[in-house]
């Protein structure tokens, strides 16, 4: 298990489309542990594989509160099967866009199919924070970021700020 460097805006990797996972083996298990370690270290409540530079359709989530035991969840090749007409708003952030938060409106409930770490088909009915988190992370697999839902003016300001910051920083995927 190890903590991996995070891919940060405006790294073009974040716009890459991730590929389905095909092999469910020890390497995948190790990779999911690395994703969780990286997410806990950040700290964050969700992480997609592309955020540590691997374009695989895989994401991890843990919504346990600080005083609760860890509750890691791993979702592989997830697909949104249904989303509610009812919507709600959360203030979202992203480990790839540090220290920036904005309100995003999304469907309040979603039904998602996915494979677990053993490759077994699963389905989840998610509501509230889990629904938002799943949609945010599944967006990452399609190269979509939460700033794509805010106004163009705000988005351009955020991207500009991160481009400026990136000049003083080596590309994240080369970091060790
Ligand atoms: Ni994110």
Descriptive report:
The chain has 176 residues and is an alpha+beta fold. The protein has a single domain, classed as Peptide Deformylase (Alpha-Beta Complex). 26% of the residues lie in helices and 25% in strands. The strands form 2 sheets. A 5-stranded antiparallel sheet has the order 1-2-3-6-7. It has a two-stranded antiparallel sheet with strand order 4-5. The radius of gyration is 16 Å and the shape is globular. The two termini are 15 Å apart. The model has no long low-confidence stretch (mean pLDDT 95).
Average pLDDT level: 95
Strands, count: 7
The number of distinct structural domains comes to: 1
Beta content comes to 25-35%
Shape: globular
- CATH C-level label: Alpha Beta
CATH architecture: Alpha-Beta Complex
What do we call the CATH topology?
Answer: Peptide Deformylase
């Amino acid at each position: 298990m190890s903590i991996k460097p995070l891919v940060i805006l405006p790294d073009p990797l974040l716009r890459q489309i991730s590929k389905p996972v095909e092999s469910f083996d020890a390497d995948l298990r190790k990779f999911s542990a690395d994703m969780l370690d990286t997410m806990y270290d950040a700290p964050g409540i969700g992480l997609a594989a592309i955020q540590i530079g691997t374009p695989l359709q895989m994401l991890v989530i843990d919504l346990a509160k600080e005083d609760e035991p860890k509750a890691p969840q791993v979702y592989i090749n997830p697909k949104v099967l249904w989303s509610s007409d009812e919507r709600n708003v959360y203030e979202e952030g992203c480990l790839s866009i540090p220290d920036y938060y904005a309100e995003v409106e999304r469907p309040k409930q979603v039904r998602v199919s996915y494979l677990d770490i053993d490759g077994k088909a699963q389905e989840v009915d998610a509501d509230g924070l889990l629904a938002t988190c799943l949609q945010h992370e599944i967006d990452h697999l399609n190269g979509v970021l939460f700033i794509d839902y805010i106004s163009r003016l705000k988005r351009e300001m955020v991207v500009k700020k991160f481009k400026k910051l990136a000049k003083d920083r080596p590309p994240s995927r080369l970091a060790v």
